[in-house]
Each structure stands twice: as structure tokens, then as C-alpha cells.
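User: I'm curious whether this sequence folds into something compact or stays loose and floppy. Could you predict its structure so I can see for myself?
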Amino acid sequence: NSLAGPIPSGLGDSACSNLAALNLSMNNLSGSIPQSFASCASLASVDLSYNNMSGELPADTLSEMRALEILVLSFNQFSGALPTSILTSHTLKVLDMGSNKLSGALPSLPPTSNLEEFLVPNNGFSGEIPVAFGNASRLKVLDLSFNHLQGPIPHELGLLSQLEKLSIWYNNLSGEIPYTIGYLSKLRILILNNNALSGAIPSGIANCRSE
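Assistant: Here's the prediction. I'll summarize afterward.
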């Protein structure tokens, strides 16, 4: 539609306590996520993608959304760091923050993470890929492409036994492709181009056969 302006705070008041899914994508909404969303005890899915929302992510509000499983905020103007508190959620399965203006280092994913999809392409993240990403054993999709990441691809990514897609192209990554990529038997999509990688392609990649 052509909805514009900020999301009204009343959308998250006690009258919406039973709201389970909210999709306001592809509008002209601005501002940030209302603080009142913290009281949405049943809200499991939020899609605010393709709008003009901006500012830093309200970490306190998002961490209070106890039922949140899917958070899609891609194609907005959110800036600042990605709050670690979002990633400590025991319910969050999908986080899509692609095509925003986020920056700084990527936060580590804790061993307790239930994330299945972590997508932050086309932002301004820098530094190295945290080795702790190997802790997120439920990850199926990891997309870190079009950022400013540098350093090696961590060997620990080979621990992600459920991973189906790994996309980290258009960064400044260097070193060899880790042989542990060959441990990812369910991997179907691997995109590493436009980096500064060197050495041979590990023969173990032939073991990546999706069943």
C-alpha cells in the first residue's frame, strides 16, 4: 500500500496482546519500532521490510518480545550496531537485516541460539567473522555478503551441520577456503566470489551432497 508516517504506538498496546503476526512491508513507513511492541506477548512474526524506517534498533524493545520467531527488517535505513541482546533470544529463528546501514563488528552467536536464518547482507559490517558462529548449530542460512568483513573464513563454520546456504561474497576476506567446508553435508549453495581468497579449492567440497 502507500501507508506513511511512523507506526502508531497504540498498535502495540494491551489491546493487541493476542496479535501473532504483523506484516507492514512495502509501504512508506518511517521512524523506528514503537516501544509499545514490548508488550506484544504473542507476536511471533514481524515483517517491516521495504520501508523508510531509520535510527538504531531498539534493543530493549526487541528483547522483550518473548514470542518473536521471525524478524524481517530488510531494505530500510536502520543504522548503528546490531544489538547482541537480539541474538540471545531463545525463540528467534529468522533474522533478516539485509540492505540497511548497520555497521561495526558482527556480534557472536551464543551456543543457546535457535537461529535458522541469519541474513545481514548489504550493510557496513567490518572486522572478522566471529569464530563463535560455529556455535549456532541450527543455522541453515548464513548471508554476510556485501559488507567490509576481512580476515579468514573461520574453520568453525564447518561445525554448522544443518547449513544449506553460505553466502559471504563481496567482502575483503583472505586466506584459504577452510577444508572444514567439506563437513557441511547439507550445503547446497556456496558463494565466495569477490574476496581476496587464495590457495586451492578444498576437495572435500565434493562431500557437500544434500540429502
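Summary: The chain has two helices and 17 strands. The chain has a mean pLDDT of 93.
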